[in-house]
Design goal:
Layout (H helix, E strand, L loop, with lengths): L5 E15 L5 E15 L4 E3 L4 E8 H11 L4 E9 L2 E9 L3 E13 L3 E9 L4 H15 L3 E2 L6 E10 L2 E9 L2
Antiparallel strand pairs: 1-2, 2-3, 2-4, 4-11, 5-6, 6-7, 7-8, 8-9, 10-11
Length: about 180
């Protein structure tokens, strides 16, 4: 029951844009929704009688920009493409000369709370040395998303690719 220190809301829908996680990845959009929400003003608290929904969208350009900022293994000029549920990454490696390298990765949700990137295969020169280099870089950035870094208490249910978007879907409950 609402009073002067609280508010009852029939439907809550919030859209958060350009949310940068502590590790540097920018989530282009987070959409959260819930029904029959009760909000307490002091201390601020949201109560949901049933779980709400959450959708996180990350563009291929945001992922490429994150990789460029991190410059894993001296790689640069990243290009990212999503296809068939996989992430295709191309970059330039400068050792003595500049060479193009590519990798195909898949996404895996662990315990409903973390999103990991796994190397499927290399698509360029370099053999097992390049494979090991890329795997070490992935180990350094995994998990790429941990729900504890999100602004809501969430569980991850699924991850898919839609055109130039990586889409995570899940449920939310109040902290």
């Amino acid at each position: 029951m609402a009073d002067q220190n609280s508010l009852d809301v029939g439907h809550l829908a919030a859209r958060l844009l350009a949310v940068t996680l502590p590790m540097g990845l920018t989530l282009d959009e987070i959409v959260i929704q819930g029904e029959n929400v009760h909000i307490e003003k002091d201390p601020f608290q949201i109560s949901l009688p049933t779980p709400g929904s959450m959708e996180v969208r990350i563009s291929d350009t945001s992922l490429a920009a994150f990789l460029d900022r991190r410059a894993p293994g001296g790689l640069s000029e990243f290009r990212v493409r999503f296809a068939d549920g996989l992430i295709h990454v191309e970059a330039k490696a400068s050792i003595i000369i500049s060479v193009n390298v590519g990798a195909v990765c898949r996404l895996r949700i662990e315990d409903g709370t973390k999103l990991f990137v796994e190397l499927v295969r290399m698509e360029s020169i370099g053999g097992s040395g390049a494979h090991n280099l890329v795997q070490r870089q992935l180990d350094g950035i995994n998990p790429v998303i941990d729900v504890k870094d999100l602004p809501v208490n969430a569980m991850l249910d699924s991850v898919e690719t839609e055109g130039s978007w990586l889409v995570l879907k899940g449920s939310i409950a109040p902290r």
